[in-house]
């Protein structure tokens, strides 16, 4: 498949994002409402802003340079997103094909975001703090265990059976144990997330270290390298692609465990907020929290991709994931 940002722009492709944004705006403004919703102009304002931005992006597609290529590449994705917004509005607020209160329209979700801006911001901060604490602990433990199991034969003999027995059990199954072992909700939640991250990081780090080509090690030994040099300057750098696979898998497991961990008596967090609003059937607020979660998790995943690209710059053009 060719790169959409590589060549000169096509007129239809360039005008697709503003056309789709205009379509979504017209659907929202011209069609009558079939659901009862509080009056709000937030969604119309958002679509107007997106229309203005997409018109600017359409003009920039004819410019040369990195930003013009970025606009050409992202144009189809933006058009698809605007069409999805129009369909969401049509299926909920405008036609009522999906029942209330389970499927609110986009304007209701935006209104819920504005109404609960302070609790949502506080919950996002608490979720980020808990997630990063647990993830950092899990990564540190996984790297140490992975190097030991991958490099030392005795550690591999005793460690692999434990890894195979403990690792596959979902971290959420340890909730009762975590609540007994740790004195407060934050520590028990961080420990659960760390456990969920530890298994994939350990497994893939040990696999990467154990499968370093012998030629690399033989060359280093010939030049007088000791054990520490072989581990930290040869085996670990050569294992980085495998280690990053473990980090990505661990991050996915951390997201799943975070929602459960925030039910362990915490007083703020996106998982806690979801459960709270579900209890009152306020689904617009639930979708608002889900939208923030999607942006939150996507941002962390993008940051990890950037770190990987920086650390594995010597493999540019080889990596395809």
Characterise this structure.
By secondary structure, the chain is mainly α. The chain contains twelve helices and no strands. Helix 5 packs across helix 6 and helix 11 packs antiparallel against helix 12. The longest helix has 35 residues. It is flat and about 75 Å long.
Quick recap:
This protein has twelve helices and no strands. The chain is flat.
Looking at this protein, list some descriptive labels.
mainly alpha; about 75% helix
How are the elements arranged and paired?
Blueprint: H1 11-30, H2 42-60, H3 66-94, H4 106-115, H5 117-151, H6 153-166, H7 175-181, H8 185-210, H9 214-222, H10 227-261, H11 270-279, H12 283-311
Please work out how many helical segments DSSP would assign: 12
Strand segment count? 0
Structural class: mainly alpha
* Share of helix, binned: over 70%
Radius of gyration: 25 Å
Low-confidence stretches: none
- Cα(first) to Cα(last) distance is 16 Å
The geometry reads as flat
State the major sheet.
none
**Content of β-strand:** under 5%
Q: If you average the pLDDT, what whole number results?
A: 87
């Amino acid at each position: 498949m060719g790169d959409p940002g590589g060549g000169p722009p096509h007129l239809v492709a360039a005008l697709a994002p503003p056309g789709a944004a205009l379509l979504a705006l017209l659907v929202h403004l011209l069609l009558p409402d079939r659901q009862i919703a509080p009056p709000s102009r937030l969604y119309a304002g958002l679509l107007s802003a997106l229309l203005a931005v997409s018109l600017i992006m359409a003009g920039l597609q004819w410019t040369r340079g990195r930003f013009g290529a970025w606009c050409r590449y992202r144009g189809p994705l933006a058009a698809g997103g605007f069409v999805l917004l129009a369909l969401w509005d049509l299926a909920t607020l405008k036609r009522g094909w999906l029942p209330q209160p389970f499927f609110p329209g986009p304007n209701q979700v935006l209104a819920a975001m504005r109404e609960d801006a302070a609790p949502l911001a506080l919950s996002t901060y608490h979720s980020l703090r808990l997630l990063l604490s647990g993830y950092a602990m899990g990564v540190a433990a996984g790297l140490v265990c992975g190097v030991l199991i991958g490099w030392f034969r005795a550690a591999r003999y005793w460690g692999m059976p434990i890894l195979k027995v403990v690792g596959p059990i979902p971290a959420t199954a340890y909730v009762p144990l975590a609540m007994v072992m740790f004195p407060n909700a934050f520590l028990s939640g961080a420990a659960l997330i760390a456990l969920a991250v530890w298994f994939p990081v350990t497994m893939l780090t040990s696999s990467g270290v154990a499968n370093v080509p012998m030629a690399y090690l033989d060359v280093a030994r010939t030049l007088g390298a000791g054990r520490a040099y072989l581990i930290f300057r040869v085996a670990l750098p050569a294992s980085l692609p495998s280690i990053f696979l473990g980090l990505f898998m661990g991050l996915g497991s951390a997201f799943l465990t975070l929602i459960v961990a925030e039910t362990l008596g915490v007083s703020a967090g996106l998982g806690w907020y979801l459960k709270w609003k579900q209890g009152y059937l306020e689904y617009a607020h639930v979708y608002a929290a889900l939208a923030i979660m999607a942006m939150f998790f996507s941002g962390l995943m993008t940051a990890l991709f950037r770190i990987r690209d920086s650390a594995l710059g010597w493999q540019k053009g080889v990596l395809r994931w």
